[in-house]
Design goal:
This protein is an alpha/beta fold. The chain has one domain: TIM Barrel. Helices cover 47% and strands 10% of the residues. The strands form two sheets. It has an eight-stranded parallel β-sheet. Strand 7, helix 14 and strand 8 form a beta-alpha-beta unit. Helix 6 runs parallel beside helix 7. Bound molecules: flavin mononucleotide (FMN). Flavin mononucleotide (FMN) binds next to helix 3 and helix 17.
Length: 392
């Protein structure tokens, strides 16, 4: 008997066995300015390239003669247990990259048991993703200047069952994103218009994306729309910029801590002093990240900062690493370097842009297979075995 589902996914795995294999098909399916938004770093992409170079430089020495190894990917992170040592990082405007991307990745997260982080400025709302990701949904907060708005977002997240908040620290102001400008991307008040002939022309060259995006209502910010007085994309973009840019400081972090009774991770920390101060204010864990190299082109790779951050916070505070991770091998690399967990941003989005509804599950399957394979090659049975490599 032919098993169609199995056959299809095997076809996909044979065609695109690595996340990196999905970059080209993604670029062919979405407009140039959208791909530039997804793929670019900032400046000359130095930080983005260094993230990769640093990961590529991490070698892992296998040990053999341990008999049959059957890796178990169960991962403890603080009080929670996941079925994988990775999660999906928050991506703003993800429904502009591919309509419905949030729920596509959210469903994969629920099915395979890893967290999906919904951005404050995603296309789909807290309520929509609660349905798709269920208990695997985390909420990322860009702290709004208006405290009532902040508290209302937290109220909605809590009411929908989210228990983990990721507060992003590393966007004190928008970065220049030169590759986006060159590709003609609309940058709100800072640049090209949303209806420039180039944007329209690039969109017409990707009819499936254009039709789906049109049916989805264009660039949506469903979490923030209820609070914006101004209608239209331009008005909402301005409102969001006014509310979210550069509002976070240490006092405000303490206020948010007092307003949220679940776990809090502070994301975008690279300096040990910042990490220690955050933990002192009651933050439960740190996401060591340089935002995928999208903010400061001279920022160090997070992995290069990991031991300094670890020394500052001690061994019991969960550390999540992201930026540059594009494979299960990279996931194992960061755990072996001393992280407790990892996050992947662009990798999931290349898959969804390339494969639509199948993208979330395909990306998850690749990562799970790769982590298992690398652990087997290293002769390691459990995630704790992988983490012990950092002590040896
Ligand atoms: C297109 C794009 C949009 C992003 N939007 C957000 C966001 O809304 N909030 C946030 O905290 N981080 C955001 N990030 C950063 C990611 O959460 C994550 O730190 C980064 O993508 C990790 O690097 P990687 O893409 O190499 O995996 C974004 C990244 C990309 C690529």
């Amino acid at each position: 008997m032919r098993c169609r589902g199995g056959e299809l996914s095997m076809d996909l795995m044979n065609k695109y066995p690595r996340l990196s294999d999905l970059k080209k098909p993604a670029a062919k399916r979405i407009p140039k300015f959208v791909y530039a938004y997804l793929d670019s770093g900032t400046g000359h992409d130095r930080a983005k390239d260094e993230n990769r170079a640093f990961l590529d430089g991490v070698e892992l020495t296998p040990q053999f003669m341990r008999g049959r190894v059957d890796p178990d990917l169960t991962t403890k992170l603080g009080p929670k247990t996941f079925k994988a040592p990775f999660g999906a990082a928050p991506i703003g405007l993800s429904s502009l990259i591919w309509p419905g991307a949030e729920s596509i990745i959210g469903r994969a997260a629920k099915k395979y048991g890893f967290p999906y982080t919904l951005s404050t400025v995603a296309g789909e709302s807290i309520e929509m993703v609660a349905d798709s990701a269920g208990e695997m949904g985390w909420f990322q907060l860009y702290a709004p200047r208006d405290r009532d708005l902040m508290r209302d977002l937290l109220r909605r997240a809590k009411g929908c069952g989210y228990t983990t908040l990721v507060i992003t620290a590393d966007v004190p102001s928008p970065s220049r994103r030169e590759r986006m400008r060159i590709a003609g991307a609309p940058l709100g008040s800072r640049g090209n218009s949303a209806f420039s002939p180039r944007v329209i022309w690039q969109s017409m060259l990707r009819p499936e994306w254009a039709l789906r995006t049109l049916l989805n209502g264009g660039a949506r910010f469903r979490n923030m729309e209820p609070y914006a007085k101004n209608d239209g994309t331009r008005g909402i973009t301005k409102f969001i910029g006014d509310q979210l840019n550069g509002s976070l400081d240490w006092d405000y972090l303490a206020e948010i801590r007092a307003s949220w009774d679940g776990e809090i991770y502070l994301k975008g920390v690279l300096h040990g002093q910042d990490a220690a101060r955050a933990v002192g204010l009651g933050v439960n864990g740190i996401v060591v990240s340089n935002h995928g190299g999208r903010q400061l082109d001279a920022a160090p790779p997070p992995l290069a900062q990991l031991s300094a951050v670890r020394a500052a916070v001690g061994k019991d505070i969960p550390l999540i690493v992201d930026s540059g991770i594009m494979s299960g091998l990279d996931v194992v690399r960061v755990l072996a370097a001393g992280a407790d967990f990892s996050m992947i941003g662009r990798g999931f989005m290349y898959a969804v842009a390339a494969l639509g509804n199948k993208g979330g599950e395909h990306a998850a399957t690749i990562l799970l297979e790769e982590v298992r394979d690398v652990m087997a090659q290293l002769g390691l049975q459990t995630i704790d075995d992988v983490k012990r490599l950092s002590h040896s």
